[in-house]
Amino acid sequence: MAIAKAERLMNLALCLLGTRRPLSKRELRGSIEAYLEAGSDDAFNRMFERDKDDLRELGLVIETVESLDGDIGYLARRDSNRLPPITLDAEEAAALGLAAKVWQQARLAGAASGALQKLRAAGMPETEDTYEVHSALEPRIPVHEAAFEPLMLACRDRRPVIFDYRKANAARPEPRHVEPWTLECWRGHWYLAGWDRDRRAERVFRLSRITGKVRSRAAGTFTTEVPDVVTVRETVESWAGETATRTALIRLRSGAGYPLRSRAVSVRELGDGWDELEIPYGHGLDAWLVEFGPDVVVREPADLRADVVDRLRAVAKD
Questions:
Q1: What is the chain's mean pLDDT, rounded?
Q2: What confidence score (pLDDT) does residue 117 get?
Q3: Residues 201-206: what's their mean pLDDT?
Q4: pLDDT-derived band at 137, boundaries 50, 70, 90
Q5: Residue 144 CB: number of other CB atoms within 10 A?
């Protein structure tokens, strides 16, 4: 259905841009196959009005013209819908090129590459690929979760969604009704921030814990205002365990847990194949420690140790 609507919008835009005089609803209906297939005049009128509003929301300037006979017509003048010349310096072009490379492993790879080709055709200067020539590292944001694309589209279109979510310490997933705000990547993991309708509070969901398909609600609007993007990122940062309020003391098997070692405030060798680490302690650290399994033992604080034990027991029962 999304593809059919996109094709219908494209056909309507082409008709409005390709005419030198205003076209009436009757003429537009006769020119676009999807409108011809509308079951009734009322169905066509509703479809046309929605499509017209969608095109205007996308930025197309559509004029409504009334003739001397009182007939209403529509057109989109090319001079009113022509973008200004693209002027990018070498540094701006390099930034766009780097941004496009970031998405080469994601579903946006085709769109990113196509956008670069169009910009270069329009005069964007060619730049040397610094990362490819001088570095063995490549900028990548891996996206393996099937939930990424439908959630990205839902965030863009401001559409509520429903999905099954399994918390780290839960035996089975639970349905969540969410108004999605944005997707953020922290330490290689993708998170969705949004408003949980059932809990009437903002929540952050790790995409790898979403099971099954993400379903969009056919109808419905957001019931809460979307916060500023900076505020949302701070929320994700806190839920992802990036904001530390104190420190934790853990034992870590020698040669294991390099991500933990990179965050350690101090490291002390204990012998017998174990080290003692002091690491920043914030929300979500218990879930992260569980991922290292038997290579990690929490010494203190006691509440963190209890949370890790509860999570391990929940996994053992599954």
A1: 80
A2: 64
A3: 89
A4: very low
A5: 10
For the record, the structure tokens of 251 come out as: 């034992």
d(CA 179, CA 9): 26
Q: State the residue for tokens 């990018």.
A: 88
Answer yes or no: is pLDDT of 43 > 50: yes
Per-residue confidence band for 60, with pLDDT thresholds at 50, 70 and 90: confident
Cα 243 to Cα 247, 281, 305, distances in angstroms: 11, 8, 19
C-alpha distances (whole Å) from 294 to each of 251, 257, 290 are 10, 11, 9
pLDDT of residue 94: 72
β 244-253/274-282 pair status: antiparallel
Q: How far apart are CA 44 and CA 39, in angstroms?
A: 7
Q: Confidence class of residue 269 from pLDDT cuts 50, 70 and 90? A: very high
Lookup: tokens for 21: 């005089």
226-242 in b/e burial notation, b at 16+ Cβ within 10 A? bbeeeebeebbbbbbbb
Nearest to 287 by CA among 241, 226, 250: 241
Query: Please, which residues have CB within 8 angstroms of residue 64's CB and are 6 or more apart in sequence?
Result: 72, 73, 74
3 state SS of 162: strand
Q: Identify whether the C-beta of residue 112 lies closer than 8 Å to the C-beta of residue 70.
A: no
Task: Quickly tell me which residue has 């095109």 as its tokens.
Answer: 55
